[in-house]
Structures are given as C-alpha cells and as structure tokens.
Specification:
Elements: H1 4-13, H2 53-65, E1 69-73, H3 76-92, E2 98-102, H4 107-116, E3 119-123, H5 138-147, E4 154-158, H6 169-178, E5 183-186, H7 202-205, E6 209-212, H8 214-217, E7 225-229, H9 235-248, H10 255-293, E8 296-298, E9 304-308, H11 316-324, E10 332-333, E11 337-341, H12 348-360, H13 384-389, E12 392-396, H14 427-435, E13 440-444
Parallel strand pairs: 2-3, 2-4, 4-5, 5-6
Antiparallel strand pairs: 1-7, 6-7, 8-9, 9-11, 10-11, 12-13
Helix pairs in contact: 1-10, 2-10, 3-4, 3-9, 5-6, 10-12
Length: 446
C-alpha cells in the first residue's frame, strides 16, 4: 500500500528548500525530527478540505477498516468524539437533542455536551460496577430508549472500556437500527480489533460511527486518531464530517502525526494482521500463566491484561510499584486493578520480564476492601453546558455536599467523571470521590 503523506514529507525534507513558512524551526534539528515537521504547503494537502495526498491516504485507511470513509485526527479521539456527536445531533434536527450515554464516558464527552448543548440521559447496567466499566446489554439499551422522555438523537457507548471489557456491540446495534437511532462508540482502545483473526471492530459489528485512538494500540504517534463512518450510515455524516472536525480542531495539524497514520496503513496492509494475531496469542498465554498462579483477571479484551489485585493480597498500585522496580511501567493502577496494555511492538523480552516478575510476587492473604462505590446518578440541577461555563470555585470534597459540580475533577487516566457537571454532590457522591482520591472538587460558585 502506498504512503503518499510520508513520501511527500520525506521528499520535501531532502529537497534543501528555503523554508519561508511555518513552523519556526525551519527544519533545523533540535529534537531531530524537525525536517519532517511541515505545514500545509503546496502539495501537502489541507486536512479539513483534503483532496490530495491526505485524501488518498484516508482512502487507503477506509479500505482497510471497511468504512464509508475514515477521517484522520491529529488531536486524538477527543476530537473525533466531539465531531461524531456534532454530526449525530445536527442530523437529528432536534432543537433540544437527547443523547443516551453509558455512564463511563470520557470527559471529552462532557466537553462536547458543553459546546453542543445537548441533554444527556445516563444508562447504567443492572449490576454495580467499577467507575471505568459500564457493561450494558442490548436489553438495557432498549429499555433506556423506550423509557426516555423523547426519542434520542443517538446512543453513545464506550467499548472497550478501560478495564478491558468489550460490549455486545452487535446486539446493541440491532436495537439501535430497529429504532432508527445511530450508535456511536468511543473505541479509543480498540482500533486494533479490526485486525484480529476474528474482526471485532465496532464498525464491523454494526456501529454507525466510532472514534478510535490509533496511537493507543497501533504504531502511530500520540495524537493520531480516526473518525470512522459506516458504509450504511446516513450520507449526511460522511458529507459533513470534515466540517464537524474543523469546528473543534486546530488549523495547524501535525504532519508528523499524519505521516505516522499514513505509514500505519502500509503496516496494517502488509504484516499487521499476522502480528496482531501473534500478540493476542502471547497475551492469552500470559493470562493463562497468571491465572494458574492464582491471579484474578478481569475483562475480555485480547491485548489488555487487567488484574484484580486484592484477591492476591495487594492493592493494584502495589503491584504496579513491584513491576516498576523491574523496569515495567503499567498503563493504570488503583486500589483494585492493575492494567497492562500490549501491542505487536512489545518484544519477547517484554513478555518474559512480565512473566518473571509475576512469578516472584508472593501471594498474601486476600485483602478485604470496602466495596468500591458504584457510579452514582445524582440530580441534574443544571445542564452540562451551564455548569461548565458558570463561575466556579474549588473546595475540599468533604465540604461539597449539596453543591453543584462544575468542570470535571478527574485524573487521566482514566478521565471518567465520577460526578457530572450540573449534578448535585451528595454524601454518597462524596464517598465515591474520596474513594478514588479526589480530595478537592470544582463547584458552581453560589
């Protein structure tokens, strides 16, 4: 597969041209990559009105993912999230759009709600769950649609979630199709699902649009992402996607990131599928080894390993510290879970090192922890937009009872708000905030 963006950038870097254009480094090395860092000069195409090398590269990407069109983002899946929500609510024509969303939405979803000013009805699973997880069944989604106070403009899910759980997208998509409601999926952690031996990508399974963080699981620079639009989606979405992306994006996209997305196409077309299959096998073998040692594993995502630490006598962050002493950096850890992410770029040494460290961890008496508070639905006293744009102040969490939450107070990862902007902070919410170490919170100023 050809790589038109990377080829153009490389050719320009070798041309010895006098650069009387942005950026200010003029291609001279400070970091060593400046020669490949260009702007939208003649021949380089323009990301949000692409008709040249970027359009050609996106077409290559679209053929790989089997989409009507796959649009590039150089600003992560956060940009794609905002754009696909923009498309869904403008297509609905509703003056006051309603979005049905799983509660474990990334805070980028709330920023989209702020600028697009839509209402949110949160969906929760029938059983209590971790902050990062919200495994909804098709019946849960259908019930939410049927009991909503108006027809939703869209249904919004996060899959895979941060703990490695995959939602039943295929069945949920059938429900959404039956009700003629587009299904949007934050697939930030799942771009690679397309390239497993069994294709498990949300677009393949029936989603209307997805936002994929290419950089999280593919060999792409940080910030590289996709907005995928399904072949059977309303034509309005593909026709207006560039305008939607441009509404929230910088006018100076990184050509380093775009080049990495372009080069990734060639990788996926040539060796990617075989390498992802091999990696999934290695992770599966490692999971089996840890299970045999007595570790409790969580989630079903093929390239993510999530350990429930208390069953082995540890906090999740204690396991992370033990791994760190042996030069292994984890993706995420809290009191309950340790999360490790793998890709084909991991070497055999990485797997050997992980296995050897886990072999040396001495099992202790099971920790009896207070049950992690489940996400709480609190009274929405202001719209997300009004609360986010209101004057606010930061106060100790313990003093916040009865106040209205302002901007999200949450670390990244996992960037999942415990209390949503505009909601009342109750004593139960405070317990949840303190459990996750949030000791200060932004509230609407009275």
């Amino acid at each position: 597969m050809n790589t038109p963006i990377a080829d153009f950038v490389t050719k320009y870097a070798k041309s010895d041209a006098t650069r009387l254009h942005m950026p200010g480094h003029k291609g001279k090395p400070i970091l060593g990559v400046e020669a490949l860092d260009i702007t939208e000069i003649t021949g380089a195409d323009v990301l949000y009105s692409a008709d040249g090398i970027i359009a050609e590269s996106e077409n290559n990407c679209s053929s790989l993912f089997g989409t009507e069109h796959s649009f590039y983002s150089a600003e992560g899946s956060s940009l794609a999230i905002k754009a696909m929500l923009y498309l869904a609510i403008t297509a609905s024509g509703d003056e006051r759009p309603l979005v049905l969303a799983a509660r474990n939405a990334h805070k980028a979803f709330l920023y989209a709600a702020t600028w697009l000013d839509f209402d949110v009805q949160w969906m929760m699973p029938s059983e209590d769950t971790h902050l990062c997880s919200c495994l909804l069944s098709a019946d849960d989604v259908e019930n939410a649609i049927l009991t909503a106070n108006k027809k939703p403009s869209t249904v919004y899910l996060t899959s895979p979630d941060y703990l490695g759980n995959l939602a039943d997208i295929k069945e949920i998509a059938k429900v959404c199709t039956a009700h003629k409601i587009p299904l949007l999926v934050d697939n930030a952690h799942g771009a690679y699902l397309k390239f497993l031996e069994k294709d498990r990508h949300p677009i393949t399974l029936g989603a209307t649009m997805t936002s994929d963080s290419a950089h999280k699981t593919l060999p792409v620079l940080t910030g590289g992402a996709y907005l995928h639009i399904a072949k059977d989606a309303d034509p309005y979405f593909a026709e207006n996607a560039r305008a939607a992306l441009a509404s929230f994006a910088s006018t100076s996209p990184s050509y380093l990131i775009l080049s990495s997305l372009d080069l990734c196409n060639a990788y996926l077309a040539e060796t990617g599928k075989a390498e992802f299959a091999a990696s999934a096998k290695k992770v599966s073998d490692l999971k089996a080894h840890l299970s045999a040692l007595g570790f409790t594993l969580f989630g079903n995502e093929p390239l993510k390993l999530c350990v429930y630490a208390p069953d082995y006598g540890y906090f999740g962050y204690e396991l992370a510290e033990l791994l760190q002493k042996h030069k292994i950096e984890s993706e995420f850890a809290d009191s309950d879970y340790l999360v490790l992410m793998f890709s084909p770029s991991n070497t055999p040494l990485d797997y050997e090192r992980a296995e050897q460290v886990f072999d040396k961890i001495v099992k202790k008496e099971r920790k009896i922890l207070p049950k992690a508070p489940a996400p709480i639905l609190s009274e929405q006293r202001m719209s997300v937009r009004k609360a986010m744009l209101a004057k606010s102040e930061t106060i100790p969490t313990e003093q916040a009872a009865g106040r209205i939450a302002a901007s999200p107070t949450v670390s990244c990862p996992p960037a999942i708000p415990i209390v949503v902007s505009g909601e009342t902070i109750t004593k139960e919410v405070i317990k949840c905030l303190l459990h996750y170490g949030i000791n200060e919170i932004a509230v609407v100023k009275e």
